[in-house]
Fold this sequence. Notes:
With 209 residues, this protein is of the alpha+beta class. The chain folds into 2 domains: 2-75, no CATH class; 79-205. It has helices at residues 31-38, 43-48, 58-67, 79-103, 113-117, 125-134, 140-151, 160-172, 175-178, 183-202; strands at residues 2-6, 9-16, 21-27, 52-54, 75-77. The longest helix is centred in the middle third of the chain and has 25 residues, at 79-103.
Amino acid sequence: MRPFFIRPSYITVVSNPVTCTVLHVSEDRTTKSLGAYYATCSSTQLESLKSMSMDIWGPYIQGTRIWVPGAAQKIAFDRFHVAKYIGNGVDEVRKIENRELRKQGMDTLTGTKYVWLTNRKHMSAWHKKQLQQLKKSTLKTSWAWAIKEFSQTLWHYKSRTWALKGWKIRFASRRRSTVSHLGAQGLEAMVILGHAMPACSHEKSGQDH
C-alpha cells in the first residue's frame, strides 16, 4: 500500500505484490482511506494476512493496527526508509550535541554531518580518517552512529526473535547516554525500527518494502 500524489491531493493504492493486482484505490492517505479497503475484507481474510508492506506513514500504521489482528508482527517497511529515519535521528543527536559543545568553545562536531551519514563505502579518504578518530570518542553522536550502523545488520536476521535480542543487547549499553538526547526525530526512529522488525523475516521472500 502506497500513497501517490495526484494534484491537488493524494490517493491510497492497495495492491497484491505477488499477482501485481490493484485491490483498492481511495482518496487521500488517511486512516479512513486505508480502512475503506480493510472494511471490504472478511474477518477470516484479515486474520490470514501474513504481511502488509507499506510506507512509513502514521495513518497507515494506525489503520492496520485497528483492522488486522496481530498487525504489529505483520507490518513491513522499506529498509531504505527506515535507514533514513535512523539517519535523521543521528543527525539530530549531532545538532544538539554540537550546540552544547560550541557553548563550551569546542568545534569537534562542526562540519561533520556527512561523516556520520555517508555510507562508508562511498566515503572520501579524508572523511574515513575523521570517522576513525571521532567514533573512538565518548561523544553521544558517536554512540548514536554505532546504533545506526548496527541497525543495518538487523535485515540479515531470518528470525525476528533473534533480531530483537541482538537489538536489545546492543541498545541497552547506549540507552541512558544517548536516548535522552535523540530528540523527537530520533525517538521516532527507534519506534519505527521496532515496527520494521517483521521486514527482516519477509526480506527472504522479496518483501522488504
